[in-house]
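The protein record passed on below.

***
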Amino acid sequence: MASATYNHRKYQPVEPVTGFTRTWPDRQVTEAPIWASVDLRDGNQALLEPMNVAQKQRLWHLLVKLGIKEIEVGFPSASQPDYDFTRWLIEENQIPDDVSIQVLVQAREELIAKTFEALKGVNKAVVHVYNSTSRIQRERVFGMGRDEIKDIAVRGARWVKEYAEKYPETDWTFQYSPESFTSTEVDYAVEVCDAVMDVWQPTPEKRCILNLPTTVEVGPPNHFADQVEYFCQHLNRRDSAIISVHTHNDRGGAVASAELALMAGADRVEGTLLGNGERTGNMDIVTLAINLYSQGVDPQLDLSNPDEIIQTCTECTGLPIHPRHPWIGELVYTAFSGSHQDAIRKSLKQQQSDEPWQVAYLPIDPTDLGRDYQAVIRVNSQSGKGGMTFLLERDFGISIPRWLQLELAPIVQQTSEQQGGELDSQIIHDLLIQHFVQDKAPVSMEGYRIERAGDNETLAASIRVEGLEQSIEGKGKGAMAAFINAWQARTGLDIHVVDYAEHAMGEGSDVAAAAYVQLNVAGQRVSGMAVDADTVSASLKAVVSGLNRSGTATQTVSVDQAQQA
């Protein structure tokens, strides 16, 4: 029996949009939208613990590296940390010439004045002003009529224009959002935006931005597309406005709403990298961009190294990524089913390099996103992975992490098929050491010295590269981070730790330690393992094993450098 409080009759469906010509279902998206990241504002304000300055700086650099040209950096009139971060960007010359920062402000003069103060000296910027226009907000929050709410928008637009004129050295772009657009009568939303444009007087050469948010997602994606197309068809000066959308995920349709909105005439999309945002999240830029990529559209973003995106976002926000996250989750290219594995194998065998991608169960080539084919077809516990892991732990005290299990299992399975019988624990152990412990050549760790200062450590290491001894030095939070930083400085390689595990191989004070590391080296994942009497030594040698296995360990280390050392 249903609960007495569970009553669907108290809800009403959204009203259909009428009075326009629906054309969007027959359209295709053929080019990337203007991407605008709101990770540092909308995403940040959705965190239980907002990002500190160092985290915001790190995420800023990632957004720029990915190729996003418009980045909303905060709400400087309402938050001192946002104000300070905005000033850091400007005063420290952190904004590339082709990137515009965007700031949000309510349609209130004192807040607009402080916003322009925060932006003083910037080369170019987007000032994003907003006020809520929905019927619910008008009637139940503000107690105002349509004309009064429109007057707020017009006054805000006028103040933005007046204060911008005080800073003529900056190239300003004005943006207006009718907040809660999806709950606003669409003809009224057009009326308010027309009034704002009458103040700003944009032109086709110098357009303003009109941003249509699903502040709360109250209807299906097709309804939002209808609203956007109605808006585009009825706006007085459509050619003088960039139509932007900012979709939220209350009904799970943020990406779909944004994608259909592009079909309906939108030019620009605001979102966050992995969908972080208030309530159930914002539109996921990564997901939408790869959606377009899978349809043959260049997203104009560099998403070839999702491990870096995942690591940076999770470490800066403290939010994990689901293993089934669209396109880039750990398991999204993994087939456990035997029939799926068979179909993938057969398709890959027939796939030609000069033909369109046609592989069963894989809508895009995983290698485009730094995933290898070994991770596509994995052996689960029913296929022997559980038994393999049990034997290693029982007989050798080796408890390999799950991600290394998944790499070792196909090797064990292939060996079993070649030998035509059961493999004992010694053979499995030998395969593990043979394939993943490569800490002797071409690079080996000869010794190291660590100095600690607060949270950071300075590591000076002696290594041997193809027989020549060298010295390297680096700093980081932990010996492994310091060693990787030293290695990156010496070689120029881009290296990230994807995962790490260690354990004692038994009980007592004199047992050996095993360390396992999964690295992302120049966009490709590679694993390494080492065993040593000392935990720190084991971790450093595991990194060396990974570098040796990557095939990049010596490619940029010159003989002259080695001889000088």
Remarks:
- The chain has a mean pLDDT of 91.
